[in-house]
Structures are given as C-alpha cells and as structure tokens.
C-alpha cells in the first residue's frame, strides 16, 4: 500500500508497510522492494534535520564511514537517499525486540543478561569506532535483541552536534552537558548507563537537574552486584580521562569481571537468558509509556549508512541481503533500481540460420557465454573485493570481509563470521590456500578443518566466489535480463559437479532436497558482481537462501599470519 511519511514523499521503488513510530529524528517504516521482494527498514528523517545543512553534511560523512563497518553487532545500512522531498536511510530490517521494550515489559534482566547486552553493545561500538563513527546517543531503544539474544546497535549520529545531552538526558556523559562533542568516551558512558538500567530497571540518574546529577551525584554502584561495581565506576567516571581509553579496553575489563564472578560460560548463559526475555517481551503487550520514558517506541531498529543513490549493497529476503545474525533471519538487500526489462531479440528466421549447429539458449533468451566471459574478464582486472554474506533458512550464517583472488590457487579470505551452535559468536578468521586461522585472545592461531569457524569460513568462501556466480550463469536452464539483474534457475545436480564450488550446491541439495536453484545476479557497470541471491528449496518448507553483496573491487591482499 502507499504510505506517505514526510510531506507525501517516499523512497521510490518500495511498497511501504505500517509505521513503527519514531521520535525527534524521524519515522521508521518497514518496506518491501518492489523488484526483489526484499524487506528493509526505512527511516525518514524529520524535516527539522533535513533542513539543517550542517547536520546533513555531517550525517552524509558519517554514513560513508558506516558503510565500512563490518560487524554483526551493528545494524547494516544500505543507502542514504536525498532529494527535494526529503531524506531517508534505507537499512537492514531486523527481526527482534528493542532493549527498551524488554526493559519496559520485564524490568531488570539480571547480571548475566546485562553483561551479555553490554558486551554486544560494546562490540558494535568498537567496530564503528574503528571507522571513526561515534554513536553519540546510545539508549535502550538503539539496541536490538534478536531471537538468539544478540545485541545489535543502530541509529548512529541522529542528533545534531550539541544536542546529544538533551536528546538522551538519562544517558548523557557530564561533558556533553557542557557542550563538548560526542566521543568514544561519551559512548562508553552511555553504554554503561544502559548496562546499569539492565541491572536495576532504571537509569543511574533521574531528576529535574540531570546536568548536575551526571556531573556531581555519586555513582550509584551499591545498587549493582558487588562483582560488577567496578565496571560501573569505570564506565560512569565523571572525568572522561578516567574511563577506559577505548571500547576494546572496556571489553577486556568486562570479560575479566564476568569470568571471575560467573565462570567461563557467563556469555552463553547471559545470551540464553536474554533470548528468553526478548521472546517473552515480544509476546506480551507493552506497558503504557511512563512520563519518563527511555526511548522511541520501535520494535525493529536500524542504523545509518550511505552510498547516495546507490542500491548495490542490498539484495533480497531473509538475510534476503538476507541478514542472519546468530541464526535469526533478517531483512536485506535490493538488486535493481526498477529498470525496464530489456527486449530479447526475436529468433532468426530459417533463412538467417547457419547450417552449423546453434547453441540452445536458456528459457528467457539470454546467451550466458558472452556474459560469463565479460564477468571473468572484469574480475580478472580487479581480483578482489569486500563482501557481505548471509545464509538464511537451514544452516544460517553471516559473514563480512575481504577476498583476494590468487592466480593458480583458491581465493584467500579475511572475514568476521558467525553461525549457530558452537559458532554462534562472531569470530575473525583467515583462510589462505588450505590453511585456516582464527583470532583467539587477540592472537592468530591455526584452525583444524573440522573447527566450526573453519567450516563456516569454507562455506562462505564457496558461496561468495566469482566461480559461484559464473557457474550459475553457465548452467542456467532459465535466464532473463531485467535492467542490470540476471534472473534464472539452474539444475542442482549439474551445479554439484562444478569444480571448486560444487560441494556448496551438493550440500544445498542434500539439505533442502530441491532439484533446482533459483538465482538473481546484479552486475555493476563494469560487469563485476554487485549482488548475488540464490535459493534452494520451497520457502514454506526446508530451504536455504544465500545472499552476497560486493563492493570496492580492486587488487586485494590477504596474508597468513606470520
């Protein structure tokens, strides 16, 4: 249905659904890409922000940085769209419950779930800080809890500079009240204030003069369990110089305190408890807002990222880009910009035909041979790219990273990957040739092939390789062109025989029992893959959907640790 959000303007190419609500920064609306059926979330910025040229310039730059963030604890953003009608952020649609709702329905979540929430929040912030992207206004409504208890951070930089304290008074560091800019230190403070609320059911300070309370009131550590009080003292220190110097430093302190107090399984226990609380919060009606309130009334959150006017980082459905975090299916990426389907030339008349045998084209009339040649030539000239991969349905996986094509050998990969079971936490891995390495306690260590992270890395390597793209085109029994997207189907049995990537298709066939693989491939203007979507099986039964987006093609280098 049509949905007018800001002065009647909507981002073109999407069918909008219900309004999820919002606040001073704008409204959030789930939408479906009209071409691919991909579900996304679109935040329409408030007119006050759109008319603020200083904010828009700053936010555009922030969005550019956020596109470089590759971490499962940060909500993906696909596009920052502007025109005379308004401005909007198109982002990953994540199935989950905001932490604000969990707290409103459940109250305090307990120390283990609180630690798990803080850990996930800090991981997301650390990834953003590596790209010089500061959040500025962390609060419970900016943290999503997915179906597996992962904390995912969104809504970066939505407050104009100088207004952060007024935007989130319950979580604003003392220096923000004095007009200082948002920094890593203010993000640490806000994340700790949210942690305090997870422990106690309320923010650390409440009253008429919030500025004075944040600057002068004692840190209420006595309300927290004894083993966690030092975390609060450090994170809520009045002087930013007394807080941890980086989020990574704070994570190390958190892990030490958690293991000391609750043992090495604290994270699994905390994540399990948080999963239960989020599921219950989703089932129960939300209490009416109190006069204090802790954030916006949004069940599906999102984050901000750019590439003005570009939709190359999206794909379709589920991690459809499917985004799957810890096994929970999320929404994703769009393949086309609504271009008209190119007409297919009429078949030649008998007089025009050669007497020699002619190739039989797939249903749809597109000849894959010259297309494959163009793709292979283009990628040979730019032998590597950044990628974002997700698998939904049976065997959920998510990964982000970089690959480098190695002449005469299999591509090398550096990635952050997570799946389910023993590999449900995000892990950093490298694969060079047949050697797998994983980062353990900030050191690279060899991984045996049967290690769950090595197995996931190998699955991602097969699913994202250029050979996967070309194998689908070569074996297609159906192939049509729609703008810059090629849509078709290929027999699973034939694909399973393709050297190198065949095991991927064989695994899909065994898992889903499907005889064919449906796919869509988007190419950029230089004939390099921009997005790949493929599905095996019936969406209403056993199925798997794989989606990859590609960016920054060029010569890459991935080396094994010395």
From TrEMBL:
SUPFAM superfamilies: Protein kinase-like (PK-like)
Domain of life the protein comes from: Bacteria
Domain (Protein kinase): residue spans on this chain: 14-259
Stretch list, region Disordered: 279-298, 340-367
InterPro entries, per database record: Kinase-like_dom_sf (IPR011009), Prot_kinase_dom (IPR000719), Ser_Thr_kinase (IPR053235)
Pfam short name (any one): Pkinase
Protein name in UniProt: Protein kinase domain-containing protein
Species, as recorded: Actinomadura algeriensis
């Amino acid at each position: 249905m049509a949905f007018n959000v800001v002065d009647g303007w909507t981002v073109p190419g999407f069918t909008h659904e219900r309004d999820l609500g919002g606040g001073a920064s704008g409204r959030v609306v789930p939408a479906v890409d009209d071409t691919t059926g991909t579900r996304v979330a679109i935040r329409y910025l408030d007119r006050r922000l759109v008319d603020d040229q200083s904010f828009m310039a700053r936010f555009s730059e922030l969005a550019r940085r956020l596109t470089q963030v590759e971490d499962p604890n940060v909500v993906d953003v696909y596009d920052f769209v502007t025109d005379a009608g308004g401005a909007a952020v198109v982002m990953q649609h994540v199935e989950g419950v905001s932490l604000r709702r969990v707290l409103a329905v459940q109250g305090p979540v307990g120390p283990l779930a609180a630690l798990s929430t803080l850990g996930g929040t800090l991981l997301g912030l650390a990834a953003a800080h590596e790209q010089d992207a500061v959040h500025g206004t962390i609060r419970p409504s900016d943290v999503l809890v997915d179906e597996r208890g992962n904390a995912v951070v969104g809504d970066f930089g939505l407050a104009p500079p100088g207004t952060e304290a007024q935007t989130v008074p319950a979580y604003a560091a003392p220096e923000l009240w004095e007009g200082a800019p948002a920094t890593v230190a203010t993000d640490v403070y806000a994340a700790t204030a949210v942690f305090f609320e997870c422990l106690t059911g309320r923010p650390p300070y409440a009253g008429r003069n919030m500025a004075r309370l944040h600057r002068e009131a004692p840190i209420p550590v006595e309300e927290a369990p004894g083993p966690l009080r030092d975390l609060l003292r450090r994170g809520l220190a009045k002087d930013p110089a007394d807080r941890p110097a980086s989020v990574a430093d704070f994570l190390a302190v958190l892990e030490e305190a958690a293991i000391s107090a609750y043992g090495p399984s604290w994270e699994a226990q905390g994540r399990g408890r948080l999963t239960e609380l989020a599921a219950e919060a989703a089932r129960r009606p939300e209490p009416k807002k109190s006069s204090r309130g802790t954030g916006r009334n949004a069940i599906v959150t999102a984050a901000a990222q750019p590439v003005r006017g570009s939709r190359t980082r999206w794909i379709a459905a589920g991690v459809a880009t499917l985004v799957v975090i810890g096994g929970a299916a999320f929404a994703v990426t769009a393949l086309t910009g609504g271009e008209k389907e190119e007409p297919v030339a009429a078949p030649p008349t008998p007089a025009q035909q050669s007497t020699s045998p002619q190739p039989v084209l797939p249903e749809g009339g597109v000849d894959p041979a010259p297309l494959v040649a163009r793709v292979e030539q283009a990628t040979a000239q730019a032998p590597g790219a950044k990628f974002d991969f997700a698998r939904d349905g049976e065997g959920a996986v998510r990964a982000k990273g970089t690959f480098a094509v190695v002449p005469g050998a299999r591509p090398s990969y550096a990635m952050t990957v997570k799946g389910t079971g023993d590999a449900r936490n995000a892990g950093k891995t490298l694969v060079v040739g047949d050697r797998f390495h994983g980062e353990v306690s900030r050191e690279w260590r060899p991984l045996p092939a049967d290690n769950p992270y090595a197995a996931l890395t190998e699955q991602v390597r097969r699913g994202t390789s250029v050979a996967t793209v070309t194998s689908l085109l070569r074996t297609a029994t159906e192939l049509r062109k729609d703008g810059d997207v090629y849509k078709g189907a290929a027999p699973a049995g034939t694909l399973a025989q393709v050297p190198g990537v065949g095991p991927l298709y064989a695994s899909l066939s065994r898992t889903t029992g499907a005889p064919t693989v449906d796919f869509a491939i988007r190419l950029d203007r230089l004939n390099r893959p921009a997005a790949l979507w493929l599905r095996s099986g019936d969406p209403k039964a056993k199925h798997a959907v794989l989606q990859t987006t590609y960016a920054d093609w060029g010569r890459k280098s991935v080396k094994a640790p010395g």
